[in-house]
Amino acid sequence: xxxxxxxxxxxxxxxxxxxxxxxxxxxxxxxxxxxxxxxxxxxxxxxxxxxxxxxxxxxxxxxxxxxxxxxxxxxxxxxxxxxxxxxxxxxxxxxxxxxxxxxxxxxxxxxxxxxxxxxxxxxxxxxxxxxxxxxxxxxxxxxxxxxxxxxxxxxxxxxxxxxxxxxxxxxxxxxxxxxxxxxxxxxxxxxxxxxxxxxxxxxxxxxxxxxxxxxxxxxxxxxxxxxxxxxxxxxxxxxxxxxxxxxxxxxxxxxxxxxxxxxxxxxxxxxxxxxxxxxxxxxxxxxxxxxxxxxxxxxxxxxxxxxxxxxxxxxxxxxxxxxxxxxxxxxxxxxxxxxxxxxxxxxxxxxxxxxxxxxxxxxxxxxxxxxxxxxxxxxxxxxxxxxx
Amino acid sequence: xxxxxxxxxxxxxxxxxxxxxxxxxxxxxxxxxxxxxxxxxxxxxxxxxxxxxxxxxxxxxxxxxxxxxxxxxxxxxxxxxxxxxxxxxxxxxxxxxxxxxxxxxxxxxxxxxxxxxxxxxxxxxxxxxxxxxxxxxxxxxxxxxxxxxxxxxxxxxxxxxxxxxxxxxxxxxxxxxxxxxxxxxxxxxxxxxxxxxxxxxxxxxxxxxxxxxxxxxxxxxxxxxxxxxxxxxxxxxxxxxxxxxxxxxxxxxxxxxxxxxxxxxxxxxxxxxxxxxxxxxxxxxxxxxxxxxxxxxxxxxxxxxxxxxxxxxxxxxxxxxxxxxxxxxxxxxxxxxxxxxxxxxxxxxxxxxxxxxxxxxxxxxxxx
Amino acid sequence: xxxxxxxxxxxxxxxxxxxxxxxxxxxxxxxxxxxxxxxxxxxxxxxxxxxxxxxxxxxxxxxxxxxxxxxxxxxxxxxxxxxxxxxxxxxxxxxxxxxxxxxxxxxxxxxxxxxxxxxxxxxxxxxxxxxxxxxxxxxxxxxxxxxxxxxxxxxxxxxxxxxxxxxxxxxxxxxxxxxxxxxxxxxxxxxxxxxxxxxxxxxxxxxxxxxxxxxxxxxxxxxxxxxxxxxxxxxxxxxxxxxxxxxxxxxxxxxxxxxxxxxxxxxxxxxxxxxxxxxxxxxxxxxxxxxxxxxxxxxxxxxxxxxxxxxxxxxxxxxxxxxxxxxxxxxxxxxxxxxxxxxxxxxxxxxxxxxxxxxxxxxxxxxxxxxxxxxxxxxxxxxxxxxxxxxxxxxxxxxxxxxxxxxxxxxxxxxxxxxxxxxxxxxxxxxxxxxxxxxxxxxxxxxxxxxxxxxxxxxxxxxxxxxxxxxxxxxxxxxxxxxxxxxxxxxxxxxxxxxxxxxxxxxxxxxxxxxxxxxxxxxxxxxxxx
Lengths: 388, 368, 530
Known about the structure:
By secondary structure, chain B is mainly α. Chain B is built from 12 helices and 2 strands; from the N terminus they run αααααααααββααα. Chain B has a single domain, classed as Up-down Bundle (Amino acid/polyamine transporter I).
């Protein structure tokens, strides 16, 4: 009797377990996936609908070395719909495979979309469990979809190429990669304006290349303006995001230029409220090496180094001032001054927050730059044939 | 009559409590929405509030060595009222296991297996839990050690890997949460991860050295709180203000790990942590419910109850909420109040009555 | 369906309640030896049958050959020269020099035993049963007409393999000798390692027909008495007709007969067994097999090789850790691969995903089916390689390698990464010989779990395995200790192998007292130069 009950129980458990495991609900073989590497969002002017361009990898083509060479390793396709999710699902009419976003690298908004406000477009990319916050956000200077069509010069997949280009921006610090997570943090903050690198197509025909240039500045979620390369680096100086780069200064003796390489930099923003007025102190510390020089002056002397350091500091300062001017003009707090005030004076903030748009252009900003020159490289003096 | 014959050592108890509290890393989320970047403070206040109640649990267990909650209730309130209170507790434990199972199911359905019916996930998971429960508290305690080690290693290493993404300014300004929200958050924290340790009233009696109960419990609570603190700290420092809208901050934070493009996409480890710690948590609730039921009806063993109770828990899990939204909002707003009698009021009352009635009478008295 | 099952069950129960009366023993007439030699010989011939290898040698000896006697032995089991030199010669030649016998009774046979036989081990017996048993195990029986007793003279000697290299558990550094098939040789090998009076052997005979000698070896005072008592109890319980190998015993005395994991360890090497005895374990030696069982067994024992202790601790620790890794790989690798490539593609780094997807292009089978095909094929290949004579085995492995490695991929049946995965798994599975069988079964279970529920399934499987391991016991010792329950002091010999001088206590999990095995300050301390 006991055995019988036991067997009955065992049967029930087995049936339950087998019935719950045989579904294979989530199994997707690799060939059933359309691996999306890039998404571009455009707006169709006439109908006001959203046009979605997705870039899908064709792995077999990617693997084929040399030989064939005719097939592209990717395919771009567009679909239009009222909402993002709607148009994504609409792709099922065109592809047998399901779009797979876990490996999506970039998200490009067209200028129209950015002007209209990106909030309603990014919601899907935040909400869907298959999307990631590490996606890089870009803004196209014109149509977004075309950017994905630009055949990369060295790599096989445009989206991967753009990702690598964005990553390489840290060598000049004249643009910066912005992850969706960073974009979101700025979007959700009290005042800090979101930024995103700008991308455009330059050249014609087969010479076409995708080019990263400067940054787009948002006010809330709407595009407010654009920063050029110098302003961008100015911004990056302030927020301490400069990784590397070259500062060209005039040689102290006046004939020639000196290129100084940035090795490391940091910044500190200290807000202070004096007599009800906000006063912000930005302290930038930079260290660098001598990269190259076109003058014949010998900088291997402490005094020359000092003068170079001063010129470098002045150059940095001018970049910072340029972006400050631009930010005031656009009235966008790209530096996060508002947040720094809030963090230091949370009590006063409630009152300031409502008037922030008025306050921001009037904020007094003090920029202090401390630039250091550390090393000269492999040679000391320039190779000078006339010198004995 | 003793149903559970196994014994656990004091170090096993410490780790059981640690594992139990680590199982709440998922449920800390309910506080993020309320107290935002001050949540780490809430962890501390929650701990502070729960310590006196932990002392009550310990005092109860030490007063009646070797007796679990159901037996204690019988002793203190007599057979009828005691059984009533015990029945309330069993319902409470049952609903806790269902609620926790529901969090887990929601998590798995959102992130791991979105197209799988929840019932399949629940059946598989409950089956594994019932397997553990069938083997008794000793086996749960033994497995737990390995799970705690795994969890601690993963929490520690993700913390280190995310150091470069952390911004300490995310914690500023400190303590700006309105007092009302702060109390709300503290209440959630005290009730969900810490207060749920009331279930140890069913486990602690099987400690082999009952006089170590106090130090073990406190140590476990402390280490568990440190883990929770580490997790909250990591999430807030990495995610900053976005934490309020993200439904699984731990998961999203770990998704951001990117060390030289090689060490990336590590979120599976968070899922592993959640699964194993939830396994411990749900197994303990499941065990407490079973053991209590067996004692309530004076059975010789809880073996025959395992299957029906498992089915009951699964059904309860499905019925408990229609949607994740309902679940989360009840966890944050209703649940803390629902737990008050079970976690805070009744144990204190029991201890008080025991004091007044002068129980237990001398060793070897009529109640033994 | 349930009705059908119940019917089946009733049938089983019937079997259980009315077991067929099986005669496990060859019942012998419990008779005593009689005075009459002829009668004795007749009884024996009846019992022993007419097999040609049983020799009945009758002869006359004593003063003027007045005494009639007979020896009985089995040709092949006995050493002929011993019989000739130590029994027949003294009796037939030396006894002629003695005076006339006064009386042929038991005193006479005692006289022969004490003064005439040159054999070392002589026993005086009275029952036919004892005689038959002795004869079958290689003793020679001496009957003397008129005596009610017979002599059982130990003359065992048969062809057997000598002490050779152990085939399993080979070491580069360390003793190479392995046990042989002869029980006596094996006990001698052990006694040569442990020259202590504490070394105790308890012999019992199991198997009603095979009458296999089984020996419990342990160190008195070191091994837990309750453990020895338990071993004895379980061995005594065995009531079967045949024990041919220690594997029979293992299956009779296991703690968890339905578990995948074996809770009885075996070894072919005397040094390994000696080390285990010295930790407080008991060994069970079975006549006729070089494999010696040791109990209790811990899970981690499978990962400890004899050489770990002979080489220096750093390398030993590295290898120890690698072994654990190899076990995990051998069990989980195909499952992980399937789970990641069909459920959790988000975990693959992007460039790798492209390669992976390219490799999968055009393959008709889902990953889980490929893994199963390859897994099964590998097991077949392995089995073929093990059983076949070496030259043929090589041919098999070449064919296998070609088919698995090359053809399957280029034909587009199996994706290339799968071949790598299976190969890694296969190589890893050979690292821990003691758990190869468990690994093969677990691998398939995990593969199925991964194929249906992905990583969630694998994790549930792992939790289940852990629960099972934590609940197993081997002769009272928790099988998964010292990991679960955690015994911190014993971790010195799990993932790392502490230096020998630092392992001053015996493992607590075996020897509950955790007693000292050496002085605790043995760290080498050479005098400094200055």
